[in-house]
Amino acid sequence: MQIIAHRGASGLAPENTLKAMAKALELGASAIEIDVQAADGELWVFHDRRLERCTNGKGVLTEQARAYLEQLDAGEGEVIPTLWQVIEIIAGRCELHIELKGAHTADAVAALTQRAETELGFAACQWVVSSFHHPELARFAALRPDIRLGALTANLPLTLAQFAEDLGAWSLNCDVDFVDRLLVEDAHRRGLKVLVYTIDYLDDYETLASMGVDGIFTNRPDRFLVP
Ligand code: G3P
Ligand code: MG
Prior knowledge:
Strands 1-2-4-5-6-7-8-9 form an eight-stranded parallel beta barrel, surrounded by five helices. Helix 1 (about 20-25) packs parallel to helix 3 and helix 4 (about 105-120) packs parallel to helix 5 (about 135-145). The two termini are about 15 Å apart. By secondary structure, it is an alpha/beta fold. The protein has eight helices and nine strands. The chain has a single domain, classed as CATH 3.20.20.190. About 30% of the residues lie in helices and about 20% in strands. SN-glycerol-3-phosphate binds near residues 6, 47, 99, 130 and 197.
């Protein structure tokens, strides 16, 4: 089962910050997941639509100017990093799952992954690009057909894993609240991996392992990775 550090090691450092990335790398995570949004011509690594929960700022992130976002405190004196800053700190040392948090992200992420392969030694097989926004994911797939896709769902569809197969995804990424053996078996029959969010306790991990789940997103990679 693959252990994916969710928003970096976000149970141990402020989520989606460079500190959370460094912590995940230090723990030996083989993969890190981050959330990406576009604002003022830049890609920012940030989960929420609004700034209040995770920073000392106010408002909707995508409506802000670069100069405003750059000076915010995202916790423990960390800034909101750009996607390029996160890519630079990882520098090909583990896989990176980039979650497109909305519209206007696919083109810029396609360009930056390409640049990282040229300048920083990343390989195309080290990325997984995922999204709940399936049209944006399809747009990304058209731009970078060589990169694996994660089809996210927060619901259990009537047609189970069909939507992920239709998207040409590599994995179906779903919520622990509804994942069951039927969904896992259906995904596997279609040749898809199943990755489940968000798992921070060993008993949940064991339940999912017994269902044949392929990976988990966790805020506490330290609980699952042997030092
Ligand atoms: O990619 C798994 C997980 O990150 C999806 O949900 O809301 O934590 O971004 P969320
Ligand atoms: Mg996410």
